[in-house]
Known about the structure:
Layout: H1 11-26, E1 40-42, E2 48-50, H2 56-69, E3 78-85, E4 90-92, H3 104-116, E5 119-123, H4 124-130, E6 145-149, H5 160-163, E7 169-174, H6 178-185, E8 190-193, H7 206-215, E9 220-225, H8 227-235, E10 241-246, E11 255-256, E12 273-279, E13 282-288
Parallel strand pairs: 3-9, 3-10, 5-6, 5-9, 6-7, 7-8
Antiparallel strand pairs: 1-2, 4-11, 10-13, 12-13
Helix pairs in contact: 1-2
Amino acid sequence: MSLNTSPxxxxxxxxxxxxxxxxxxxxxxxFSDLHGAGGLRWQGExxxxxxxxxxxxxxxxxxLLKPLLDRPAGSPAWAVGQLGQSLNGxxxxxxxxxxxxxxxxxxxxLHRLRxxxxxxxxxxATAAIDNPQLTTRRxxxxxxxxxxxxxxxxxxxxxxxxEDGQAPTLLVCDARQAAQAADRVGREQVLGVPGLLGDDGxxxxxxxxxxxxxxxxLRVLFVEGGGVTVSRFMQQDALDRLHLSIAPVxxxxxxxxLALPAAALMRDCPRPSARVFRFGADVLWDLDLRxxxx
Length: 294
């Protein structure tokens, strides 16, 4: 297959290539078969490299998206999380209002992440408060599978994701609850995961979820929120990358973002490899959680 780009080597041309690569990955194509296609070079373990002639904006966007683009077909589950927060580390007001912490540029980036990933994952609290669509309506690209984590089966079956038909939706619960969940939202919208909860019904286990999604071909995952869900993935070492967007706003007594185990000493705190990108007035930290966490 030939992946061609337009002569104008800007963001629009790059985005078309990104979508083409994702489409080939989902179809099971080996990236080595696409070597040199459309201004990109496949370098094996080095992943994709950008050719000459791209403008500065496209080059910067490629640098940010490259970790997602480099995921080959059939690779192990890989997850990128995102949180948008205030200068003082809050993701919403105490009442849960988060519309919108970040500006338009970050929202567009969020929709790009949805388009590049096989599935977008949110927790029950975020689903209940925001009633989101979880689509790619701000950018070109296919909608991801929408995954809602609801082991307590507390979500309303009237949420938009269960009724709008815009994209496949999965309500995730423990396998022992699957029949009850199917009565609420329909069997085709339920993913009952064996071992999601322990025998005591305690905290949700992320690894069985990743295995269950991979069995469905959903391997590149976007953990969109909220703070509890992103924190759970980090706590269980199931998050590979984190995009943390900081807006120039101060939220008094708001809802905190990441909640991780306390460290007694600064030297025990992780310092992941990090890059910084500007999105309008917001600053996005791209944190590689698999490197530089000494």
